[in-house]
Design a protein that fits this description.
- There is one protein chain.
- The protein is α+β, with helices and mostly antiparallel strands.
- The chain folds into three domains: 109 residues, Butyryl-Coa Dehydrogenase, subunit A, domain 1 (Orthogonal Bundle), CATH 1.10.540.10; 101 residues, Beta Barrel (Butyryl-CoA Dehydrogenase, subunit A, domain 2); 126 residues, Up-down Bundle (Butyryl-CoA Dehydrogenase, subunit A, domain 3), CATH 1.20.140.
- It is built from twelve helices and nine strands.
- Strands 2-3-7-6 form a four-stranded antiparallel β-sheet, with no helix packed on it. Strands 1-4-5 form a three-stranded mixed β-sheet, with no helix packed on it.
- Helix 8 packs parallel to helix 10.
- The longest helix has 33 residues.
- The radius of gyration is 20 Å and the shape is globular.
- The protein starts with 7 loop residues before the first helix and ends in an 11-residue tail after the last helix.
């Protein structure tokens, strides 16, 4: 039976993250969006909470407490504060969790300790390609074996690119099957060009071009066994769905509080039927999307193939996040459109969910 009642430990985790978000993330959201970066001090503070490190194996210094439902609760709270900051804070999962799940023993011992160490180390994944039919299961980027090396060619976009890490996990097609490769950022033939996107500007993402990039065969994730792509994509979609719920919740909270304070024609606008019904629909949609996300996460924790459930949840959240964020702008009228208020930023961020793929993992 599916059980969603949070444990005492989960309740404590959520409360801890919520306090951090209220005290540190929310006050910094607008400034980070304008500056197009997240301060290193804020990332270091978040790292002290062990939000990713606790999910890593104890053998590499982690907490050994991997739980998709718990990670969804964390992701939602962080994104409730700000999506770009949340993605930055959780970026270590982009490298660490795939290596923990699919890496060889040698890769795990070589890569994971730095993510469980005392300092924040960002991770990066190159999965999305700059074409209309980008498919994580059938990348156009290629990896060809030449002796003890692989030669990678192709292009990737929406690649998180925070300062402080030395590698990016690139996915390319080897004989028609998607595989992951740990690529040094300073590799010959690898170029990164900063992107100018509508939303999540503080994340800092790039478009990668790989032209004859050579990596050792030992850097192929999982060695001969490779990567279980459906499992990786499922965890990515569940994580993004949880963050989408957080963005929708943030927009809804702003709209509700504004409607309770704003007066028009002698009454609070929240008492007007059109506004009240819109807010009610927002709340219903958010709760429904959250339940779909939790169901998919529960399936992952139960060891099931949750690709279908995670995809359904993510597809629903894409719609709900955009609908609620747009509704918040409408409720706040002119105030919702100007940059002095946050709804316009939530709307810009929510629009990106239609293009995101595995920008966070649970």
């Amino acid at each position: 039976m599916i059980e969603f009642d949070p444990t005492e430990e989960q309740e404590l985790v959520v409360e801890t993250v919520r306090q951090f978000v209220e005290n540190e993330v929310r006050p910094a959201a607008r400034e980070c969006d304008e500056a197009c970066e997240v301060p290193r001090g804020l990332l270091d503070q978040a790292h002290e909470l062990g939000l990713v490190a606790n999910a890593l194996p104890e053998s590499v210094g982690g907490g050994g407490e991997r739980n998709a439902v718990t990670q969804c609760l964390i992701a939602e709270e962080l994104a409730w504060g700000d999506l770009a900051i949340a993605l930055s804070i959780m970026s270590p999962s982009l490298t660490a969790l795939p290596v923990a799940d699919f890496g060889t023993e040698e890769q795990q011992q070589r890569v994971l300790p730095r993510f469980a160490g005392p300092n924040f180390t960002p991770g990066s994944i190159a999965l999305v390609e700059p074409r209309f039919d980008s498919d994580p299961f059938r990348p156009k980027s290629t990896a060809k074996r030449e002796g003890d090396e692989y030669v990678i060619d192709g292009a990737k976009c929406l690649v998180p690119w925070l300062d402080g890490d030395e590698q990016v996990l690139v996915f390319a097609s080897e004989e028609g099957r998607a595989q992951g490769f740990l690529v040094d950022r300073n590799s010959e033939g690898l170029t990164a060009e900063a992107e100018q996107n509508l939303g999540v500007q503080a994340l800092g993402s790039v478009e990668l071009t790989l032209s004859g990039v050579r990596v050792s065969a030992s850097d192929k994730l999982g060695g001969d066994a490779g990567v279980n792509m459906p499992a990786l994509v499922a965890r990515g979609r569940v994580g993004l769905a949880a963050m989408g719920v957080g963005v929708a919740r943030a927009a809804y909270d702003l709209a509700r509080e504004y409607a309770k304070e704003r007066e028009a024609f002698g009454a609070k606008i929240a008492s007007k039927q059109a506004i009240a019904f819109m807010l009610a629909d927002m709340a219903i949609e958010i709760d429904a999307a959250r339940l779909l996300t939790w169901e998919a996460a529960w399936g992952l924790d139960a060891g099931r193939d949750a690709l279908r459930e995670s995809t359904l949840a993510y597809q629903q959240v894409q719609r709900v996040a955009l609908q609620v964020a747009d509704g918040a702008v409408q409720v706040m009228g002119g105030h919702g459109y100007i940059r002095d208020y946050l709804p316009e930023m939530h709307l810009r961020n929510a629009r990106g969910f239609a293009m995101f793929e595995a920008l966070t993992l649970v």
